[in-house]
Design a protein that fits this description.
alpha+beta, 3 helices, 4 strands, 106 residues
């Protein structure tokens, strides 16, 4: 019986520890700032410059530029018409930068 009580005590302690970690979090609580450098060292500007020629060869892509999506910097790809076929040809991320596909106003 004491073996079972010991296991129950350890389980209760583990649950309490998990609750404390979940409540306080283990990350940084400061607001996220926009990043301009890539984890590998390339800046957003460098990544856009390197990716622009290839993206512009895709029919329907008009412009490639730096942009914002929410609170994070991104690569904005402007297209003539945002179709499923066109968006399938454009990657969701380049390096570690998210790609935002935006239809040009008519």
């Amino acid at each position: 019986m004491s073996l079972l009580q010991g296991s129950t005590g350890r389980l209760a302690a583990a649950i309490a520890l998990c609750a404390c970690i979940a409540r306080t979090g283990c990350g940084n609580n400061e607001p996220q700032q926009n990043r301009s450098t890539h984890l590998g060292g390339k800046t957003l500007s460098e990544t856009v410059a390197n990716s622009r020629p290839g993206l512009l060869t895709i029919a329907g892509v008009v412009k490639v530029e730096e942009g914002m999506r929410g609170t994070d910097s991104c690569i904005r790809v402007l297209v003539t018409s945002k179709t499923a076929i066109l968006t399938a040809q454009i990657p969701l991320m380049i390096e570690t930068w998210p790609v935002d596909i935006v239809e040009m106003p008519k």
